[in-house]
Amino acid sequence: MRVQSVEKAFRVLGAFDAMRPSLSLTQLAAAIELDKSATQRFAHTLTMLGYLSKDPTTKRFALTVKTLDLGYRFIRTNALVERARPYLLHISNTTEETVNLTVLDGAEVVFVSRMAGRHVINADIVVGMRSPAYCSAPGIAMLARLPPEEAVAILDSTERHPITPNTVWRMDGLRDKLRLTAARGYATAFEEMHHGDLSVAAAIVDAHGRPIGAINIATLRSRTTPEAAEQTYMPMVVDAARAISRS
């Protein structure tokens, strides 16, 4: 049984993003599809609890730093994050590259831990950020560990388009990538999401073989070739993923 008031409160918090960092009451009501009276009650309660702020001049609402508490509690209490941390740190120290731990949430991957190397690929990527699974190495690595029909259903549920000239986005190409990844146990994505970005990933699985996360190493094409990145980093991510899966 769903408690609608709780659901609506989270809809209010979820209305804010990079494109909408602050909202008027009218904008907030439209975003969450509630009338202004109900929206006012939820916004007022969340403001009193410290999760929203209201500008006294513009009357616009915005998230407060307190909203970080839930994310911080997740990071500090999640068993996968704790188990993976020493492996991410070791690989990052060894390679001086950026190493990420991601989980699959629908058709997206969510960054839940990140060890930035000396050669940061994209400084805009932070813990909590989401990316499309279809054009990322960790996304393909995790999808490939699902039953094929389940993976295809997830890919069919999201809008796909070419982000770069190298993006594999049509279903035939994605099916081929899933089959190849399932056969060899790791995935690659070379400049599919960002120009110059090379990524190698392997899935972390539970006792039933279902994916619960993925570890990937990201580097720059200016530092190495796709072939060299695959040859060098594949054993590292595969070994780390297996060790975390067994821990």
UniProtKB/TrEMBL annotation:
Q: Domain of life, per the record?
A: Bacteria
UniProt keyword annotation of Flavoprotein present: no
- Transcription recorded as keyword: yes
One GO molecular-function annotation for this sequence?
Answer: DNA binding
Domain named HTH iclR-type: residues: 3-65
The residue ranges of the IclR-ED domain are 66-247
Supply one GO BP term.
negative regulation of DNA-templated transcription
Provide the alphabetized UniProt keywords: DNA-binding, Transcription, Transcription regulation
UniProt cross-references to Pfam families, sorted A to Z: HTH_IclR, IclR_C
Q: Tell me what this protein is called.
A: IclR family transcriptional regulator
